[in-house]
Amino acid sequence: MKYVLLFFLFGVALSNLSSEWDKFKRDYSKHYASTAEENERKQIFFENVNRIRSYRQTHPGATFTVGINPLTDRRIELVSGPKIHFESLPILLKSSIEVKNLPESLDWREKGAITPVIDQGEIAVIQGPLVATEVVESLHAIYTNNLTEGSISRIYDCCLQAEPDIFECIQKLGGICRKPDYPEIVDKCEPNACNPFTTFDEIKKLKEKDENTMLTWIQDSTLWVVMNAFGQGFGDYKEGIYDEPTCPKTDGNHAMQVVGYGIEGGKPYWLCKNSWGEH
User: Fold this and answer.
1) From 3.30.465.10, 3.40.50.2300, 3.40.50.450, 3.90.70.10, which CATH number describes the 81-273 domain?
2) Mean pLDDT, 10 residues at a time, the chain of 279 residues
3) Could you tell me which of 207, 129, 217 has the C-alpha nearest to residue 170?
4) How far from 183 is each of 132, 155, 255, CA to CA, in Å?
5) 223, β-bridge pairs
6) pTM of the full predicted structure?
7) Neighbouring residues of 142: CB distance < 8 A, sequence distance ≥ 6
8) Which parts of the chain fold into alpha helices (H)?
C-alpha cells in the first residue's frame, strides 16, 4: 500500500506540473519550432517550477516573491551575459540618503526619461550595448525633455567588443542614432550608416561599490550597472525588493539600467530596468 500511495502522490504532482505547463503556454502565448524544442522547454519548466516551490518553502521571510513568469521555460544562463569580476564595498543606502539630504525617492520613469522595457530574448551578449544605449537616450531625455529611442543594433555591431569601455566606443562613433535609422543588427560595423542624434561629454566610472556616489550621480543621469543574475530567485522574480544574501558579491554577469531609488517599509532599494520583457 505504501508504494501505491507514493506512486499516486507522484502522479498527482506530475499532473499538476502538466496543468501548470499548459496554463503557462496559454498565458504567455508560447509557441515552439518543433516537438523536440517544446519537450526540452517543458523539462526546463518543470525544473524551474520545482525550484520556485522549494524557494518559497525555504524562504518564508523573503522581501520579494517568486513565481512563474515568461522566463520559466529558459535557463538563466541563456539570458545573462559573460562573467565580470569586481570588488564590492557594501554601504548602507538609507544612511547615504540621510547624510546627503537627497530626495527620499527618485523615479526617472515618472519624468518621461525611460523607454519601454524590451525582451532581449536569448541574445545574452546584447545586454551591454542595450543598457548603454538606454543610458544615453535617457540622458538626452533628461536634458532636452525629448525621449527618443536609440539604435541598440548600431552599438551592438560597432561596440560589442569594446566592453567594458563601451561608452568610449559610443563617443568615438559620435553618439547614438535613432532606432529607425539603424533598425537591425547586421553583424558588421557600419558607423556611417546613420547620423547620431545625441552624445555626451563626460564618462564617470565607479570602480568600487559606492552607493553614496551612485545616489549623487543618479540625480542627473540614469546608471549602467552589473549584477549577478545567478542569485537565488532572481530569474523567478515577481515583485518586491530583491535582496538575496547568497547572491555572489564579486562576480557580475547581467547589465541593467538603474532608473531610480526609494524606501519601502523602511527598506531602501534601487529601481532597475531589466531587459527580459514586461512581467
Assistant:
1) 3.90.70.10
2) 43 67 92 94 93 89 87 76 46 44 92 90 72 95 96 93 81 96 93 95 82 91 85 81 76 85 92 80
3) 129
4) 16, 11, 22
5) 258
6) 0.80
7) 108, 111, 113, 220, 221
8) 2-27, 35-58, 93-100, 127-144, 152-159, 166-173, 211-217
